[in-house]
Amino acid sequence: GQNIDQPTEMTATEGAIVQINCTYQTSGFNGLFWYQQHAGEAPTFLSYNVLDGLEEKGRFSSFLSRSKGYSYLLLKELQMKDSASYLCAVRGLRDSSYKLIFGSGTRLLVRP
Amino acid sequence: DTGVSQDPRHKITKRGQNVTFRCDPISEHNRLYWYRQTLGQGPEFLTYFQNEAQLEKSRLLSDRFSAERPKGSFSTLEIQRTEQGDSAMYLCASSLLDRANEQFFGPGTRLTVL
After folding, report:
1. Is pLDDT of A64 > 60?
2. In chain B, what residues touch A1 (CB-CB under 8 Å)?
3. How far is it, in rounded angstroms, from Cα B9 to Cα A16?
4. DSSP state of B71
5. B9 phi and psi, to 5 degrees?
6. Both ends of chain A: CA-CA distance in Å?
7. Are A42 and B40 an interchain contact pair (Cβ–Cβ within 8 Å)?
8. What is the spatial distance between Cα A60 and Cα A52, in angstroms, rounded to a whole number?
9. pLDDT at position B99, please?
10. Are A19 and A74 within 8 A, CB to CB?
11. Which among A38, A89, B17, B54 could bridge A33 via Cys, Cβ 3.0 to 4.6 Å?
12. How close B1 comes to chain A (CA, Å)?
């Protein structure tokens, strides 16, 4: 089976740094994705990791440790518009459809 | 706007009625996915098309659900004899065959079954 865990809610202050963790257990692994979803809107792609290490893209960075089944999304210089749900998703190893298995999402509230 | 589009954005129906949703993927995207998302949860995979071929269906997709992509472009998702448990956001996503890493999502169709 496949299981993805991430915290339900987090709160942070504008201008600060926040780290959203994700742990996963899957039957094979072929990539981990982070998506941002504002309320009532479509998920939008943030990052993709398939090898261990840190991927940096502007204010957002994503880290992966395959041996630990662990990833985090790091958001720096938080802005009010970063208030959203952040979805962790994995793709199976022998999955030719490339479908994504999502966690329940972490609701981030950025306060002034 | 050249993103994924879905129609309608909202649908309210009575239990037992049939509903059909449409998804127009990004032009030239070979892969098309349907997901379902309920409040407070992440999207759950329903089915997948590569061009016009439906290659995978989730066990979530009961026999009341059917999806088509007749010409390998737009897709439809039909739910027959709707139940209150079908109330959810239905999301469509598309990607290129050779860049399958990134899926682009549409705005979704929110279904409410009364």
Report:
1. yes
2. none
3. 36
4. T
5. -80, -30
6. 41
7. no
8. 17
9. 58
10. yes
11. A89
12. 15
Question: B6: how many CB neighbours lie within 10 A of its CB?
Answer: 23
Q: What's chain B's length in residues?
A: 114
Contacts of A41 in chain B (CB under 8 A): 107
Report the alpha-carbon distance of residue A89 to residue B101 in Å, rounded.
12
- Whether B25 contacts chain A with CB within 8 A: no
Measure CB to CB from residue B102 to each of A48, A101, A104 and give the nearest one.
Answer: A48
pLDDT at A30: 82
Beta strands A9-13 and A106-111, pairing class: parallel
Question: Is B44 touching A (CB cutoff 8 A)?
Answer: yes
Q: Which residue has the tokens 């990607």?
A: B95
Quick one: pLDDT at residue B96?
87
- CB–CB contact B105 A43 (8 Å): yes
Residues of B in contact with A103 (CB under 8 A): 42
